[in-house]
Amino acid sequence: MTHSFRTDTHAPYYDEERSRRDSIGQYALLPLRIFLGVTFIYAGLDKLTDSAFMKGSGSGSVGDLMRSVRDSSAIPALVDLSLKNPVGFGYAIAFGELAVGIGTLLGILARLAALGGALISLSLWLTVSWASDPYYYGNDLPYMFLWVALVLGGAPYLSLDALIRRRRYGRARQGF
Question: 87-104 pLDDT, tens per residue?
């Protein structure tokens, strides 16, 4: 039995004419980038502007949140690590969310930003939302898989990464 590959299903190269379906399909990850970028920027700013959250203890603080999930998390040692300095951990998460959100929204180092988002979501799933029953009530697991899609796909269009790539490609073709 012989196998063959269909070449008409591959995305066209720069010099080829695009079909309408290819033109629309190239933007498939854009709504995901916008949603995740805006959501993570909002989450980071929300944490930074909530004076109750950025405290080691007290109602609504990161410290109390971590203490409340310690015994129900999948990795209690990770929670214990955050409890050594809950305020520092809160700032690290907030600034991490901001960096991931900005990188994703602008499409700068988009795959690296998406990997950061996936790791943040994974760590939150294994700690804060691990006890959700059934598991799909916890929102961090679906976020992690949305980030994985961006890790794989990157930001090929309407991004700073694409602009840089186009400039490099143009220079390579011109012999620069």
Answer: 999 999 999 999 999 999
Show the low-confidence residues of the chain (pLDDT under 50): 6-9, 12-13, 15, 175-176
Q: b/e map of 147-172 (b: 16 or more CB within 10 Å)?
A: bbebbeebbbebbebeeeeeeeeeee
Angle between helices 110-127 and 30-49 (to 10 degrees): 60
**DSSP code of residue 156:** -
What 3-state DSSP class applies to 16? coil
Backbone angles phi, psi at 119, to 5 degrees: -70, -40
Taking the C-alpha atoms of residue 115 and residue 54, their distance in angstroms, rounded to an integer, is: 25
Other beta carbons less than 10 A from residue 136's beta carbon? 9
CA angle 77, 83, 88 (to 5 degrees): 120
Give me the helices (H) in the chain, please: 20-25, 30-49, 62-69, 76-83, 86-106, 110-127, 140-153, 160-174
Q: Cβ neighbours of residue 54 under 8 Å, at least 6 residues apart? A: 47, 48, 61, 62, 87, 90, 91, 94
Sign, CA dihedral 110-111-115-118, equals positive
Structure-block tokens of residue 60 = 């609504």
- Which tokens in the block code for residue 42? 């909002």
